[in-house]
Amino acid sequence: MANSKGNWKLRCRIPSDLASLETLHCSYPWIPGPDQVRPSEKCKEHKAIRMQALDANWEGREDYILSSVFYKPVEVAPSGRFQVLDRNISGKLRFVPNEFPYQIDVGHHYILWFGATLDESTLDTPAGSCRRWEGVCPLSDEEINCHITEALKEIAADENSFDFAWYENPKMTVPEIYHVQVFWNDIHE
Q1: From CA 167, how far away is CA 4, in angstroms rounded?
Q2: Which of 32, 54, 120, 136 is geometrically suited to a Cys-Cys bond with 36, CB 3.0 to 4.6 A?
Q3: Per-residue pLDDT tens for 48-69?
Q4: Strands 177-186, 108-117: parallel, antiparallel or unpaired by DSSP?
Q5: What is the mean pLDDT of residues 131-143?
Q6: Contact at 8 Å (CB) between 38 and 44?
Q7: SS3 for 145?
Q8: Is residue 188 within 8 Å of 171, Cβ to Cβ?
Q9: pLDDT for 137
C-alpha cells in the first residue's frame, strides 16, 4: 500500500545491521542510519547515570521495567533495594516512548515491551545478548506488526497516516523482558 506521497509503507520487521539501516534510512529518513542508531552523547550520559542509579536501587533492571512499564507493585528486598515479586506479565503489552531515544531527526522512537520473561534455562547466554530470545520470541512477526499497528492507531492522526519499522536490538539493556525497538512516522506531523 502506498501512502499519499507515493512511498511504499513498511510496517514490518527490518534488519538491525548497519548496512541495511543505511539503505533504509536513505528511503525512509525516520529509520535511523548508522550515525543515528545510538543515543546522543548527552542522552548516553543520562542513560549511564540512570543505569547506575537503577543498578544501585533495584534488584535488577527488569524489576524497574516490571514496575514502571507494567505497573507491578514494588517491595523492598532484604538488600534494601526495590524488587517486584509478582513477575506475571503474561499476555501484557506496553507501547511506550523510548526513554533513551536514538538520534533520529524525523519521526518517533518507541519500545514495544512484551509480557514474556526468560526462564532460568535461558539465562546461561551472555547478558545483553538477544540470542537469549532465539527460539522463544513470544509472538510472530505478523503478530508484532498487528500490535504496533493497533497502538499507532490510537496515537497517529489516522490509520493511513503512519508507517513503522521495528527490530530486535542486538544489544538489549534489559534482555530479561522481551522488547523491540519501533521507529514510526506520521505524515501529518
Answers
A1: 25
A2: 32
A3: 999 999 999 999 999 999 999 9
A4: antiparallel
A5: 67
A6: yes
A7: helix
A8: no
A9: 67
